Amino acid sequence: MTLPTDPAKNLADLIRCPSVTPEDAGALDTLAQMLEPLGAKSEKPVFSDENTPDIANLYATIGEDGPHLMFAGHTDVVPVGDPDQWKFPPFAAEIADGVMYGRGAVDMKGGIACFVAALARHVEKNGPLKGRASLLITGDEEGPAINGTVKLLEWARERGESWDAAIVGEPTNPEKLGDMIKIGRRGSMSGRVTVTGRQGHVAYPHLADNPVPGILALGQGLIAHIFDEGTDEFQPSNLEITTVDVGNPAVNVIPAKASLAFNIRFNDTWTAESLQEEIHNRLDEAAEHDCAERGLEAPVDYEVEWIGRVSPVFLTRDEKLIETLSASVEAVTGERPKLSTSGGTSDARFIKDYCPVVEFGLVGQTMHMVDERVPVSDLETLTRIYERFIQDWFG
Ligand SMILES: [Zn+2]
């Protein structure tokens, strides 16, 4: 059997499976077959939950004893939009001028293709791995993310699996390959503030209680001061008001209710709890201040509701993992990558509860776009970086 040493071929095989969440379209089997010549043991647990589609996942492991490295990622992709807008059919993996086009090229079948090629090259040159490498691949990252990484990690742990370090192969580089390794992520939390008043005629305000001035004062109170100035590793925490809702179509009616929603991206000077306390304090202060300003009998009555699940903040401090990956990038590209915690959340937020985790993959510029694409030379470079990392981390 030929080893899967060519990342472009690996990627083309994966792109040709139109695995738009929740469809798998053969992507995981294609990957499992690709890993077979490496002696991988693969299992494909399917997870289900109420109100979400069943999702297939893949756990493939190579090697026996020794240090255990996890490579995590996803084979599902976002929809293509209007296929006629694409230069080439989005699941054809067409190459033009040294660039491969296709949905998932960078986010993130490309990262998987390169990691598999790196493993294959390492084994081809050095023989069996001095430890274990496991691929933890979900088909549910771009969708509801209910039947994916969270359950796959639990499933593996129940079977006695544990890992010493993990790399997530999401596209982390903003401009060019080797720019950036992500060593943590800010937390994310959303909430809604509601002020309830009393509906009435605008000409008789004394008979009504308008909630709009109150919600405006509370919103102003939320953003009046900075939360912190950031740290060496993190940007300052930031709150954005994302909507203000009154929903009143009439110009002569005082509405009964007004609300606003916000999202906070926060660094490790806060926990979800301390931040919620801070929000309540800010709202109380704003309500007091508004009461004095407008000469009200009592501060406006408000309610806060926390929306969805909180993504906790995390920072990886594993010297060996970070240094080995940084040195591998530098050895191949000649430049040292920036260590960053910027951007949105990723599945690394779940993996961090099991082992130290960093993220490094392709350049993210065309992800989720029409004509998602990757230079074949980038695939080669990333494969060489991963190969170097595998050699040194296990070495
Ligand atoms: Zn992704």
Describe the structure.
The structure is a single chain. This protein is an alpha+beta fold. The longest helix is centred in the last third of the chain and has 23 residues, at 272-294. It is built from 9 helices and 20 strands. It has helices at residues 7-15, 27-35, 109-126, 149-158, 212-223, 272-294, 319-333, 348-351, 376-394; strands at 41-43, 46-49, 52-62, 68-74, 95-96, 99-101, 132-138, 165-168, 180-182, 184-185, 187-196, 200-201, 238-245, 253-254, 257-266, 302-311, 314-315, 338-340, 357-359, 373-375. It is 30% helix and 25% strand. The radius of gyration is 25 Å and the shape is elongated. The strands form 6 sheets. Strands 1, 2, 3, 4, 7, 8 and 19 form a 7-stranded mixed sheet that branches. A 4-stranded antiparallel sheet has the order 13-15-11-16, covered by helices on one side. A 3-stranded antiparallel sheet has the order 5-6-20. It binds zinc ion. Zinc ion (ZN) binds at residues 74, 107-108, 141, 170.
In short:
The chain has 395 residues and is an alpha+beta fold.
